[in-house]
Design brief:
The chain is about 5% helix and about 65% strand. By secondary structure, the chain is mostly beta strands. Among the domains are: about 120 residues, Immunoglobulin-like, CATH 2.60.40.10; about 100 residues, TonB-dependent receptor, plug domain (Ferric Hydroxamate Uptake Protein, Chain A, domain 1). The strands form six sheets. The chain has a 22-stranded antiparallel barrel. A six-stranded mixed sheet has the order 10-11-17-18-15-16. A hairpin with a 6-residue loop joins strand 36 and strand 37.
């Protein structure tokens, strides 16, 4: 309590109006709005004019927008305060406004028609994007723009997520947030129709330059889907929307034999907008691992050692499109799709050694494997949006269909060298494992918002069906020459989940204070059917998911937020299947059909100060989870390890994150995030387990520098130290990258160089122990590589941009814009 009181006092003191003077304004939501229309001397609207918003005190840049095809612009969600805007367009005299005051009594200002005069000076065209911060703090999320991440030019979706300071991406490409909690990955605002290995494979093949921004929401409102204990990470893909015809081509290659080739084409005319893209990719990767397990139940104690190497070669493609058609004055019909497919092949060898406690070899053999795999996912969506009153009353209806799957075939050959302490010559045993998993989803969602009691009410409904089926066949041959198997095993399952949910949120701003509350009510029905035993495991349940958000903005640049949310994580069918064929007799995995969903409640106190030298953010939090999943390993007297998931009673995580971001417009940019927390786990409800607690921390960040006007460098690093797990510990690991980007062809293209893990420091190890065993594991894969990427844009620029005066040329200012 003393720590919490101290943090609250420090935040209040730092953010109160009598504190240090703010020099800049963070991009956070407020009630303020500035709008207007830009026209030429003949009163014709001017499109793509740069509108830059600055503080009135010292002209520090806050944000920027472009005018639309009718010359209109709107700067919304601004904190109350004093501002100025600057309007600039090549060939015209720029104009700057008087001080614009946004107050509780007058939060909206319409500047009316702003006429620009033709400049008397002939200037060369210079293409420059509107200034925008690489890190944007919004009411319920933090937004990281990939334009400031050089690693996105030559990397993958995994590389982009690793460059976000507050995210952790582990060795299996699982994405986690505060307190080592898994998050739900969304794509363009909707839950990704992929989970587990399929999602990790997709992120590894998604080109980094397809991502526009990453939105991190540790406490999402009730409007959002409730899955993901750690919150939501929303990956927003680029639309590349512009007038006319435009496109881009990009290619990437690396020393780890990873290549990407991508292209995009965009078209807009009248009421129709089309944009599409596709790509090819391939990559190779090598893995190695080592395990040493002591069997404490054997008399005497026996030791099993495993050492393995494996390589994997992957090939794939991806495709996406969006089509929009404006209907009437304020309605839009749209359809979109994104899909990917990949195949992989590889092989490896695992050496096994079994020893007594005197290190005398009892058995030795190896197991060679040859494997082929395939993944695919096709996601199609269609919808309708009706605007009844711009930014006040809108209805959106969204329907979505997904089909996906994973197929694999593995041949394993065991060759015995030593048995019972003596060298032997025995026939090789062969195992043929064939797996096929299919999954599908169908959803319908409707969202509506309207003014209510001086604020905004959001309501919505979602119906969602998610199903997965799988079959797994194992054939065991006594010798490679046998045509008939000595043993055959077949397993399979069918799993279906049906969800119906209703939600509402309501928010309003009262001067310096903003509030938002909401509730989602969900009915879930799940059914797991084993095709082997015929058993069915049904679990219907009802859940309420409340959320709350209170913010206080005493003046521009200073904000305190208090956020609360409740979340859920539902088990994957692989965690539930009790009948999975054994590929390695010494290491058995079995599912747990009694595994329950895990719930977490989280509260965060978030304080932000933005000034001339950047942004400081402090976010203490508390997270309490029940029915937490823990992977439990036990060993029998024969040394066979059995692993399955269990529900631990509870876990707690409480601590704070500290983030510092430099201003986006300087020569040096960057951000760093430091997190420290205490993790407590109670597993006393599981036989043989106990409580564990540990203080943990993590550190990550990036630093960029503009070496020349067209040459930029960046370095990023994320370090995650040792983690506490219920049965032991997992080591820390470090990811680093160094990147350079050179603009080419008058800013229509670029070439990038990226070096990942330059010092080859990546490795991972873990230890588990209980009354039956002690096991030490190590693993690594080839992460050090050099990547080169090149991008060329043709037609109109793929991102909305404007033409303005070059910085080294003088231009006469136009008349000051009067505030009405």
């Amino acid at each position: 309590m003393k720590l919490a009181s101290l943090l609250v006092a420090l935040l209040a003191a730092g953010l109160a109006p009598h504190g240090l003077r703010a020099q800049d304004v963070p991009q956070i939501a407020g009630p303020g709005r500035i709008s207007g229309t830009v026209v030429d001397p003949e009163s014709s609207p001017l499109a793509n004019v740069a509108i830059t918003l600055r503080t009135a005190a010292d002209s520090a840049v806050i944000t920027g927008v472009m005018t639309d095809s009718q010359g209109r612009f709107t700067l919304e969600s601004l904190p109350l305060g004093e501002y100025r805007i600057r309007v600039s367009f090549i060939g015209f005299r720029p104009r700057e406004s008087e001080t614009i005051t946004l107050s509780a009594g007058s939060p909206a200002v319409d500047l009316g028609r702003i006429a620009l005069e033709v400049s008397a000076v002939e200037l060369d065209a210079v293409v420059a994007a509107a200034e925008r911060s690489g890190v944007v703090i919004e009411p319920d999320r933090t937004v990281y723009a990939t334009a400031s991440m050089l690693v996105a030019d030559a990397g993958t979706g995994v590389d982009v997520l690793r460059a976000v300071p507050e995210l952790e991406v582990d060795v299996e490409n699982n994405v986690k947030l505060r307190g080592n909690r898994p998050v739900a990955v969304h794509i363009n605002g909707r839950p990704a129709p992929l989970r587990g290995e399929q999602l990790a494979n997709f992120l590894e093949q998604l080109p980094g330059n397809r991502i526009e921004r990453v939105e991190v929401m540790p406490n999402p409102s009730a409007r959002h889907d409730p899955e993901g204990l750690g919150g939501i990470v929303n990956i927003v893909l680029k639309d590349d929307l512009d007038l006319g015809l435009s496109g881009s081509l990009s290619a990437h290659a690396s020393t780890r034999n990873r290549q990407f080739l991508n292209g995009r084409l965009n078209y807009q005319r009248g009421r129709l907008t089309l944009f599409a893209g596709g790509g090819l990719n391939r990559y190779d990767v090598e893995f190695s691992s080592y395990d040493r397990r002591e069997n404490l139940l054997a008399e005497p104690v026996t030791i099993i050692e495993q050492s393995s190497t494996r390589d994997n070669r992957s090939r794939g493609w991806n495709l996406d499109w969006t089509a929009e058609l404006k209907v009437g004055r304020q309605a839009t019909l749209w359809s979109n799709a994104w899909m990917y497919s990949s195949t992989a092949g590889g092989g490896g060898v695992t050496d096994y050694g079994i020893f007594d406690n005197g290190n005398v070899e009892l058995d030795r053999y190896d197991r060679a494997s040859d494997e082929s795999q395939g993944w695919h996912s096709y996601n199609l969506g269609a919808g309708f949006k009706q605007v009844f009153e711009q930014q006040k009353r809108e209805l959106t209806v969204d329907a979505r269909w997904t089909d996906g799957g994973h197929e694999s075939r593995m041949y394993m050959t065991r060759h015995m060298y030593v048995q019972d302490g003596a060298r032997v010559t025995l026939p090789d045993e062969v195992r043929d494992n064939d797996q096929d998993v299919g999954d599908g989803q169908l959803s319908l969602q409707a969202d509506y918002f309207t003014p209510l009691f001086g604020g905004r009410l959001d309501i919505g409904y979602k119906a969602w069906r998610r199903e997965q089926s799988g079959d797994n066949r194992m054939l065991v041959f006594a010798t490679p020459e046998d045509e008939d198997p000595a043993n055959s095993i077949f397993t399979g399952f069918e799993f279906e989940e049906i969800f119906h949910s209703l939600y509402w949120t309501w928010g309003r701003t009262f001067g310096e204070v903003g509030i938002q509350g909401g509730l989602r009510a969900e009915r879930a029905e799940t059914e797991f059917h084993s095709l082997v035993t015929g058993d069915e495991f049904d679990r219907p349940y009802n859940t309420l998911f409340p959320s709350a958000n209170v913010s206080w903005t005493p003046k521009p640049g200073r904000t305190i937020r208090l956020l609360y949310s409740k979340r859920i994580s539902r088990p994957h069918p692989y965690y539930l299947d009790p009948a999975i064929p054994v590929t390695d007799p010494l290491n058995i995995y079995t599912g747990n059909p009694d595994l329950r969903p895990s719930y977490t409640q989280s509260i965060t106190l978030d304080g932000t100060i933005t000034g001339k030298y950047g942004t400081l953010r402090i976010a203490p939090y508390y997270r309490y989870s029940t029915d937490v999943w823990e992977r439990i390993r036990t060993v029998d007297e024969d040394g066979v390890a059995t692993t399955r998931w269990e529900n631990a009673a509870s876990s707690k995580a409480y601590g704070s994150s500290f983030t510092i971001s430099l201003p986006p417009s300087g020569r040096v940019t960057g951000s760093t995030s430091f997190s420290v927390y205490r993790d407590e786990r109670d597993g006393t409800n599981i036989a043989g387990q106990q409580r564990r607690a540990a203080f943990l921390w993590s550190l990550g960040g990036n630093l960029g520098m503009k070496l020349r006007e067209s040459l930029t460098s960046q370095i990023y690093a994320n370090y995650f130290p040792e983690q506490s797990i219920l049965q032991g510990r997992a080591s820390g690991y470090l990811f680093t990258s160094i990147s350079l980007r050179q603009q080419l062809f008058d800013n229509k293209g670029s070439i990038s160089l990226s070096i990942s893990d330059p010092l080859d420091l990546y490795s991972y190890d873990s230890t588990t122990r209980d009354a039956t065993h002690v096991q030490v594991s190590r693993s690594s894969y080839t992460s050090r590589m050099v990547s080169v990427g090149i991008t060329f844009n043709f037609g109109k620029p793929p991102e909305q941009q404007s033409r303005r005066t070059a910085p080294d040329q003088q231009q006469e200012e136009g008349e000051t814009i009067r505030v009405r």
